[in-house]
Each structure stands twice: as structure tokens, then as C-alpha cells.
Amino acid sequence: MADAGAAANGGRNKYAVLDRSEELDGRRRPPAPESERRRTERFVYACAVFASLNAILLGYDVGVMSGCIIYIQKDLHITEFQQEILVGCLSVVSLLGSLSGGRTSDVIGRKWTMGLGAIVFQLGAAIMTFAPSFTVLTIGRLLAGVGIGFGAMVSGVYIAEISPAGARGTLTSLPEICINLGILLGYVSNYAFSGLSEHINWRIMLGVGILPSVFIGFALFVIPESPRWLVMEKRVSEARAVLLQISESEAEVEERLAEIEEAAGLMKSMKSEEKEVWRELLNPSPAVRRMLYAGCGIQLFQQITGIDATVYYSPTIFKDAGIKSDQELLAATVAVGFTKTVFILVAIFLIDKVGRKPLLYVSTIGMTVCLFLLGVALTLQKHDAGLMSPRIGIDLAIFAVCGNVAFFSIGIGPICWVLSSEVFPLRLRAQGSALGQVGGRVSSGLVSMSFLSMARAISVAGMFFVFAAISVVSVLFVYFCVPETKGKTLEEIEMMFESGDEWRGGEIELEDTQHLIPSTKKSVPLG
Predict the structure, then answer these.
(1) How far is CA 133 from CA 78, 82, 136, in A?
(2) What is the CATH number of domain 284-502?
(3) Which of 52, 226, 304, 370 has the smallest CB count inside 10 Å?
(4) Count of beta carbons in the 10 Å neighbourhood of residue 20
(5) Which residues of the chain form CATH 1.20.1250.20?
(6) Residue 100 buriedness (CB in 10 A; 0-12 / 13-18 / 19+)
(7) How far apart are CA 144 and CA 114, in angstroms?
(8) Rounded to an integer, what distance in angstroms lies between the CA atom of residue 71 and that of residue 199?
(9) pLDDT digit string (tens) for 360-419?
(10) Is residue 525's pLDDT more than 70?
(11) How far apart are CA 391 and CA 393, in angstroms?
(12) What is the mean pLDDT of residues 283-287?
């Protein structure tokens, strides 16, 4: 369809999908010298890694709180309801950071918004470390949540805007790697400091979380500003200077700059863009509605399938499975964190080779099986049906939890960040990503703040049967609402959503999960 449109206009349609074979064999643009290519790759990867440090804060908080809450309850004598509030409030309040972060990043820039988020988080973490009561602890946690919301929202946008199309999937999934690394570090911190006094250990666990935000401060003097934001601010010469740092040749710089200026220029030529950004998002055109379904829906399903409940309350799950001592509970959570981190690294190598959609199918189907298996294991343990020994029940529960986080990390975990940062056009990208973050954070908070109460009503096993049912729905969501964006520039993705026919025709179908198995290379029609 794109080719037909180009022919109708007497040549290449300026919005047509580029011929990737031309790019790959060098006919469109001469290849850059190997040394220059490697230098550029190293710099872009360094920028992406530094921008992803914000995600370590979120991951560390999620991991460390699962163990801290055991000792906070003993030290401050908080109730079960207060535990739920303390665990879940960070996710809910981080939406304030996500919402304000979109507008803030459009005003002061992407990288300085990340710096602002780090400062707010440091303040909250310091208050939590020295909190004498539940009230003060909650205040610190609320501030930390706002800071995390700022960083989590803008880091994905920044990475998407500096990344070349061929590596964008890998680079924009780096925040998910850092979340997993942060979770693992949180679990290790729990285990390492668990032997200290109950009045001291949880404070040290929380205080260690300040360290990543210090590195973020140093990173701000290394990474450049987003070239797309600079173009929006009419600072074209600065944008060109940044593109020279992150592109392989001057020809590529001019090509990318022209695409960015064209996307930014559409804001003045299209009638729909005369509306305020938020008004356009809340009263969307069909194309924007499709973007919202994909970008916000993936954030929603990432959370309502219960990943935060699994991570935050893994000690509770393992205790219900039959593990008794605190040390053994925390040791089991380290295994979960290690599994989560290993499989996110696997996803990074596959995401730009296999594509987004096949990995999402593998992820959501695998999670459904593991969540159901965990519910079965906990049910058999609870009712002592005599069908298996307690040791086997514990091992099966640990296997199911590790399997769940593994399938999460290989698909919906990192791809959620990728899709939510690449499906929105330049004019909507910051606020659209923020809106997706809001949905994800609210869902995370609701799950975290209700898990213990709901588990008391229907049992821990019952909760995971519910999550398994929701995971089935997520498979259908991937099939009907998520297009394949692998290898497309951000501007091409925008035009794919503008054309409903192209959007449907460009999808990768369920059968294409066979690409996970080595086979001959096949081309996928885009229209």
C-alpha cells in the first residue's frame, strides 16, 4: 500500500516505509568507517545506560521493600493495612511525577528532568532512612515515588529519541534491565543486612538506595540533550551537534535531522495539532486512539498480571508455600531476582532480531501457565491433600515464581518500555508516555495495596488464579492491539498508525513466533 501511494504521487511517498535492504547493502548511504561506527555505538550505549540509572531506583525500591517490610512491621509495629499502604503508595504517587514529568521535560529538557527526579528521590530516601514513625516513613516514600515517576517516564523517551532505528528496541529496553538489576540488588541488600538489629537493618537497606541517584547527577554532565527536543525548541544547530555525536556519518545526520524537522513541522500544518496536546489525547483521532490502545494498554497489562505482587510479596508467597525462617525467605527472593535479571539480558539480544510481537506472545502465554501452576501449588500445600510432599510443594512454588518473572522479563517487561516510548509521534511523545506510565503506576499501586487483603479473602492461591485469568486476556490484547514496530524509525511508526490499513497489514501474526527458532530469513510485507 505504501508503494502504491508513492506511485500515485509520481515517486517515493515521503511517508512511505523505507526499503531496509537499501540501507543494509549500503546503496542509500555509504557505510561509515568501522572505527567511527564503533565510537558512535559506544557513545549512544553510554548515554542510554546513564539515562537508565533512574530505573535502578525503581527496581531497588521494589526489591528492598519486600524484605524491609518484615522488619519495619516488627520495629514500628504497623498493621497489615499500613503495610499495604506503605508498599503500594509509591506506585500510585509516582503517577504525579509521570504526569508532571511529561510537561516538565518539554519545558526544561529530557536530561534535566531526569536530574530533578533524582534530587526528589534522594530527599525521600533520606527521610525514610531516619524515619521514627510510620507517618514520617510514608512521607519519605511519597517523595521517593514522585522522583521515580519523573525518572521512569522521561528515561524511555530520551533513549528512544537518541537511538537509531535498528537499535532502538535494544536501547529502550535498558530501563527494564536496570529495574531488574535494582530488584536483584534490593533482594541482596535484604539478605546481606538481615542479620543486624531490627531497628537498624531496614534503615540501612533503604539508605543504600540513595547511591544510584548520585551517579545520575554525574551522568548529566556526560549525556547530551535529546536532538528531537532541541529541534522543538528551534535550537537546530545544537541538535545537529548532538546528532553528529550519535550518528555514523554527516549524511546520516542530515537525514535524521530532516526527518525530525519534518515531524516537528507537521505540528504547524495539520489542523488536528492546533489543539492542546492533552485535549488531543483525551479526545483522540482514530490514529491517536490506536496509539493509546497500544502504548497505554501494554503498560496496564504489564501490571495487572501481578508482577509487582509477585516481587513485593514474594516472602509472603514463599511463607504460604511452607518456608518458615526469614533468612530462607529472603534467600528464595534472591533466586527470583537473579532469574529476572538473567532473562531480561536474553530479551535484549532478541528484541531487535525477533521483533516485539513474537516475544510478547511467548511472554504472555508463558506467564499464564506459570501463574496457574503457582495457584495449583499453593492450593495443594494449603489443603495438605497428600498429593505431594511439602518439600516438592515449596520447590514447585519457587519454580513457578521464577518461571513467571522469567517470561515477564523476556517479553512484556522490556517491550512495555519500548512500545510506550516509540508508538507516539513527536508532538505527543512526552505526554503520551506519561499517560501510559500513569496507567501502569495506578495499576501497580492498586495491586500492591490490595494483595494482602484480597489474599486473606480468597487465599494467596486464589489471587494467582485471578492473575492467570487476566494474563489470558493479555494474550488477546497483544493479538488485536499491538503492531510490530521492529526496524522502523519513529516517524515511520507514526505514519503506520495514521493509516489504519497499514497498521493492520503490518502486524506480525501469532505464527511468527517460529522466528524464535533459527530458520531462513523471510521478509514481512508492510502494506
Answers:
(1) 9, 12, 6
(2) 1.20.1250.20
(3) 304
(4) 15
(5) 35-268, 284-502
(6) middle
(7) 13
(8) 8
(9) 999 999 999 999 999 998 988 776 655 667 788 888 999 999 999 999 988 898 888 778
(10) no
(11) 5
(12) 82
Per-residue pLDDT tens for 42-54?
888 888 888 888 7
Q: How many CB atoms lie within 10 A of CB 116?
A: 20
Between residues 5 and 33, the one the model is more confident about: 33
Per-residue burial over 303-325, b if 16 or more Cβ lie within 10 Å, else e, is: bbbbbbbbbbbbbbbbbbbebee
Alpha-carbon gap, residue 110 to 151, rounded angstroms: 10
Tell me the residue length of the chain. Answer: 527
> What does pLDDT average to over the chain?
79
Which residue has 495457584 as its cell numbers? 375
| DSSP sequence for 267-326 | HHH-GGGGS-HHHHHHS--HHHHHHHHHHHHHHHHHHHTTHHHHHHTHHHHHHHHT--SH
CB atoms within 10 A of CB 473: 13
Backbone CA torsion sign across 209, 81, 302, 162: negative
Q: What three-state secondary structure class fits 11?
A: coil
| Side chain identity, residue 425 | P
Q: Which residue has the cell 508513492?
A: 6
**What does the buried/exposed string (b/e) look like for 192-216 if buried means 16 or more CB atoms within 10 Å of the residue's CB?**
bbbeeeeeebbbebbebbbebbeeb
Helices 314-321, 390-410: axis angle to 10 degrees equals: 150
More confident residue, 232 or 2: 232
CATH code of 35-268, in short, is: 1.20.1250.20
**128, three cell numbers:** 525514610
Q: Global pTM? A: 0.70
User: Using CA of residue 17, residue 164, residue 152, residue 200, what is the dihedral sign?
Assistant: positive
CA distance 512 to 361: 10
